[in-house]
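Hey, resending since the last one bounced:
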Amino acid sequence: MRDKTHLYLLTIFIVFIISCEYFDSRLRIINMTKNPIVVETFSDSINMKVNNHTEYYLSNIIVEGGIINLTESGINGWPFFVRRSKNKRLNICIFNADTLKKYQSINLLINSKMYKKYSFTEEELLKMGWVVTVSQ
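The structure tokens again:
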């Protein structure tokens, strides 16, 4: 009987661990500009490809003085994202939300270089506490 109980508890424990989803929300973006912005992260600083879903970006606007935490899957999602990137950096592009509303295409903004780009190593992000402040 005792062996069955241990087996049952072990099975429950394994199912619980497997079913858990972990997310990393340590990356915080603070908008200190005078405009609403939208943000995208890239694993490549040169070849920036995204799905051109304008409505997604417009539903995630960071208002003036606003703060957002970006989420990456995995318990250490952001450090892994940086380590897997082509230049071993977190590449962040900031787009003016009003400009995106006007042109309705994130790809057009990328191709026209209508963005501000930040690039950080994991060490820099650790020193900054994974907080990126966007300013003019």
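The CA atoms of residues 10 and 16 lie 10 Å apart.

Sorry for the duplicate.
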